[in-house]
Every structure is written in C-alpha cells, then in structure tokens.
Amino acid sequence: MGADRVFAYGAAAGLLGDLLLGDPRRGHPVAVFGRAAGAVERVLWRDHRGWGALHTAVCAGGAVALGAVAQRVVRPSTAASVALTAAATWAVVGGTSLSREARVIGRALEAGDVEAARARLPHLCGRDPQALDADGIARAVVESVAENTSDAVVGALVWGAVGGVPGLVGFRAVNTLDAMVGHKSARYRRYGWASARLDDVAGWPGARLTAVLAAVAGSDTKGAVRAWRADAAKHPSPNAGPVEASFAGALGVRLGGTLSYGGRVEHRPVLNGEGRAVEVADIERAVRLSRRVGWLALGASAAGARAVGALLRGSLSGRAS
Fold it and tell me: Where does it localize (predicted)?
C-alpha cells in the first residue's frame, strides 16, 4: 500500500478516535513533549535569539526525528503503518477537546453563570476573563474555536499528508513550542522568536485551507470570502487573520476589537464589520462549523496526498521505462 493510502486510512481512524475518545486525561503525548521542551529550556535559556533558535531546533527536530524512526520501523507492515498513523493523528489533533471546552463555556453562559464561564475560559485561550462580560466571553470562544480549528486539526492533517507521521508530530511540536515560548513577554521576546516565526511558516498552508473550507462549509460563502479578502490582512497574525475573518463571514458575526492578554490591552481591527455582534448561540454554530471543516480537511489532505503520490509513481515509472 502506498504512503498516500496509509495516511488516508490512518488519519481517518485517528480523527474518528479523537471524535469518540477525545484527549487522555493523563499521559498525553503533547503534555510529555511540553515537559521535555521545558526541561530543554531550563538548560538553554538565554535572553538571545540564537539560543532560542537552538531550543526550537532541538525540540522540533527531535520530534520529527522520533516520528521518522517510528515510521521507518513499521514500514514493512501496512497494518502497523496505518496503526502508527492513526495513533499519531489521534495524539496531535484536538478537535474534540476544543469542542468540549467551547460547549462547557457556552452552557455556563446560557445558564447565566458568567463567573463559571470566566473560570473555564483559560482552558481555551489566554484572554483575561475578568475583563470580559458574557458577550465578550462568547466572542473570545468563537475566535478561539476558529483559530484552533487550524492549529489543532487542519494544520496537522496538511503536514501529515505532506510528511506522514514526522509531519504530524512535527507540526504539533512547532505549534506547542509557539504556545510555550512564542509570545512577546519579557522573558520570551527574543528567546521565543524562532519558535514564533517557525509556527507562522508551518501554519500558513493549514490556515489558508481552513479559511477556504470555512467558506465552503459555512452558511454564507460569499460573506466568508468577502471578509477574508477585506479584513484578514488587518489581523496581527498572518495565519489567524484569514481563519477568523472567514469564520466571521461564514457565521455572519463580527470578530476582533479590544481584548486583553496578561494585563496587556490590544485593539485589534474588526473582522467582518457588516456582521452582527456575537451571541451565546454562536458558540455552538462555530463548533459545528469547526467539525465540518475538520472532516473536509481530512478529505482534502488525503486527496492531495493521493494526487502527489500518483504523480511521483508516474514519474518513477517513466524513468524506469
């Protein structure tokens, strides 16, 4: 069986496993990686870009190398290769956990328990919950669902289609490093620069595919495309901009505006200014859109891997003849 089919079957099984099981409460591979990256940081940290780049290379490179070794070991067995791909996909995607956290907050808001929603929000994003009212919390959840659909699902599938198991684990390693050290705090402004820039590069294709699929799967395709074209470039993140703008247009809501991170206030541009303000019910709509985008991304990634595999096989057969 070709690598394209191994990826398609394994990724489908892994995505189904995530849907049925979600993330393990203990011993999650991403958490294990995070602890290892933290240990490397304690050894290497200097307030210098070069040392941060070394940290990124050691951690992300180590994850890719481990994935490559595992893939090579199981290559003689098709069943083992599919199983490894399924396990890696299940380990790196987080669509079910994303949906669960968003829905927990949504239920709290529906019940009028804003304090419970504030207490739960840090499980989903880094906003300052005390600075948000119910509508602000709902908007933060919708934005986080949109961005994490790309980071936690689509991006991993894209890189899995490109690089198999090393691509899957490598993307999640880069994304995790960005979350750990890629923010602009005093400690990480220089040390985390390499991780943040690598995450921008790795996230680029997945973010664009997410934006396309949100437009296809949403209730307002024209609105999603219009908001993406008009507003995505205004966002400070090159990857969150297209995703959040497309989700905003697809859902018919306004995203962006003033927000607070770690006591630092940011005034971000409004995305899809023609839309209405986010309501609590939009959380469930965003979750359902995220689900549809995830499954469409599996199909698109598998189709892309199959097309590339067919081209490579045709090229090799042409050379042999």
Answer: Cell membrane
DSSP string, 101-116: HHHHHHHHHHTT-HHH
Parallel, antiparallel or unpaired: strands 264-271 and 255-261: antiparallel
- Alpha-carbon dihedral sign for residues 314, 316, 319, 321: negative
For residue 258, give the DSSP letter: E
For the chain, give the longest Cα–Cα distance: 71
- C-alpha closest to that of 74 among 125, 6, 146: 6
Asked whether the beta carbons of 11 and 82 are under 8 A apart, the reply is no
Instruction: Tell me how far apart the alpha carbons of residues 271 and 227 are, in angstroms, rounded to a whole number.
Output: 7
263-311 pLDDT per residue, tens: 555 677 899 999 999 999 999 999 999 999 999 999 999 999 888 777 6
d(CA 242, CA 299) in angstroms, rounded, equals: 21
Contact in structure between 146 and 207 (CB atoms under 8 Å): no
Beta strands in the chain (DSSP E): 255-261, 264-271
β partners of residue 255: 271
pLDDT at 74 over 80: yes
Read off φ and ψ for residue 256, nearest 5 degrees. 85, -165
* Radius of gyration of the chain measured on its C-alpha atoms: 20
pTM to 2 decimals?
A: 0.92
Alpha-carbon span 29 to 45, nearest angstrom: 23
- Tell me how far apart the alpha carbons of residues 173 and 51 are, in angstroms, rounded to a whole number: 18
